[in-house]
Amino acid sequence: MRIRLLYFATFKDVAGRDSEDRQVAGGAKVSDLWRELTREMPGLLKTGSMPPAAVNREYTGPETVLADGDEVAFLPPVAGG
Amino acid sequence: MRIRLLYFATFKDVAGRDSEDRQVAGGAKVSDLWRELTREMPGLLKTGSMPPAAVNREYTGPETVLADGDEVAFLPPVAGG
Amino acid sequence: MYLTDAPIDSAALFAAARPSDGGVCTFLGVVRNHHMGRPTERIAYEAYGPMAEAEIGKILDGLAREWPDAQVQVRHRVGVLEIGDVAVAIVASAPHRAEAFVACRAAIDRIKATVPIWKREFHPDGTSDWVDPTAGSPPG
Amino acid sequence: MYLTDAPIDSAALFAAARPSDGGVCTFLGVVRNHHMGRPTERIAYEAYGPMAEAEIGKILDGLAREWPDAQVQVRHRVGVLEIGDVAVAIVASAPHRAEAFVACRAAIDRIKATVPIWKREFHPDGTSDWVDPTAGSPPG
Question: Do B8 and C116 touch (CB under 8 A)?
């Protein structure tokens, strides 16, 4: 199945892009996707362990199972205000 | 000796004036002046016991001894803001 | 200099923030249409002018000692105000927000506690009375 | 609706106070010329727009439940801001000042904690970096 992945701030710099469509295995969890991404781009680990994740624009935990068409983002430390 | 007495807010309503020059005895304290005023105008007591007093535009206590030319005011409960 | 009988220009107060200030906390005290369950039509503010100026100055001196990084400005209206008019404006700016908030809150609390200013509320039924915050009213 | 790439019109936010409101507490987050001891020249704000809008909405819903008498408004800039520009404006109005202060403070604290907005600081030496508030910087 296919998800839409968004990159922001320092993660966008590391990835060199702001978004991509990506194939993930059926039943894959948020934490599985993060592991896969950090294998490809170890630079993502510079903010430490798995950052907060959002699926379809809502914060969610590492155990959330991804679904086809999900919009997924890992969020570097936020700094609004 | 002579002092300048100022009235504000509800005390101005009770006194029917906003200021007056007044003779006080040498050595008179703030509390003596208040007692004298409340004898003349018992309506001043409607805010309770002796209110905060100011001599020459500074808060002061009941034991302060008055001096010739002092500007004195008893202050009803303040309500700025 | 802290009291004025003209409308308060809040924008001018904001403009005084320094380039090093990252947080600006403002409090506006506004004439509201009710007090202790009774409707209010307008309010007349009266001050012991010279003493009020001096007291506000002392409060600002105290704030500067307690929160030296904060810069606090105060304006208070006197005269007759209508519903929605700004009676008092406090602008506290500081490098970080925590100090801006605490200095702003302390400023308005202390002004209400000690500055010789009084207000007479006028009600729609034609009556009026001097507000006595010590008589059990909620804080304004 | 909470994010904007145009200058924030604080006056318009003030104008939303209701006739029953006696206290208006405002917080302006302003771009300052320093951060963690380093000089700042300008800041670029980036947001995960749709999620940021939703998160601010949830924060406002939570504030309305906790302080039902307070009315809170929020605007947050995105894009490149210069020193002194307003990055975020919170206006909390309530019948009494205590609620206005606490709702305003809670609003900015929660916005900083969870809304997906990032800022890149540009320094006079030509370098730049993403601000990481979890890296031990003082609160802004």
Answer: yes
